[in-house]
Amino acid sequence: MLTIGPYCLDPLEFGRIRLDGGAMFGVVPRPLWQRTNPPDERNRIALALRGLLLRGEGKIIVVDAGVGDSMPAKQRELYAVEASHQQVLAELGRHGVAAEQVTHVLCTHLHFDHVAGFFRLDREGTIRPTFPSAVHFIGSEQLHHALEPTVRDRASYLRAELEALIQAVEVHLVKNEGELLPGLRVELCDGHTPGQLVPIVHSAERTLCYPSDLVPTTSHVRLAYTMGYDLWAQRLLEEKAGLLGRAADEGWLCCFEHDPVTPLTRIVRENDDFAIALDEELLALGKEWHPRT
Length: 293
Ligand SMILES: [Zn+2]
Fold this sequence. Notes:
With about 290 residues, this protein is an alpha+beta fold. The protein has helices spanning about 20-25, 30-35, 75-80, 85-95, 110-115, 140-145, 160-170, 235-250, 280-285, and strands at about 1-5, 5-20, 45-55, 60-65, 105, 120, 125-130, 135-140, 170-175, 180, 185-190, 195-200, 205-210, 255, 265-270, 275. Zinc ion (ZN) binds near residues 109, 111, 192, 193 and 213.
């Protein structure tokens, strides 16, 4: 079991999605990325939809929720979505948590593959929040951007549903970096999308960061591996170098939202770049965190 400060942490496996390999690796040529991320016949690579569950001090916190079943059928086919609202509930149920018990949710950003699991549409098309009792932490700048996205990223937002969601739940808009709850702070970054939240769970002994789409998979730990989806690639590269530098120097754990194989590693410096490292403590966390070890 992984504990940090007051919290017990567990990964939440909300399903799978496939996105274009070229879009996921930007300027990196396919012969390099296909070694670690083999594409299918449509050039898509498998990605996890992995949230994070924090429990402690009377709080139950869910960070990101995958795509649920709020996506139109055409997009589900395009992205080979294997996820459902039921799976969100079942995954929490596996940890003995009912949706009504969740006290807080944190949306790292509002791209559909991170936020659509936080709601479903009923037969009448009315929005039904997955966690109706939870305070929803949402980045203020990200929300503004999501409601008026650019041509490049408007396909990543379900705008009508987002507008309905924020009317239906208690929203806490996050405007600044800092402590959200005891032992849980957020940092802000803009390279992937404006006002993205990076949650960091910390205690005197241990720190875990969840960089979400700032470093979506272990392959993206290499500095040059940035996504074509990133709005400002150079800014992202600088933000990533800053975060991973601290992670490496201070021995942080790093949880990867989209890595199809490896949910949790440490970071090490390697020449002028970064790499991942698994140590005995990580491997001892067992199947839950390292299903293939
Ligand atoms: Zn994103």
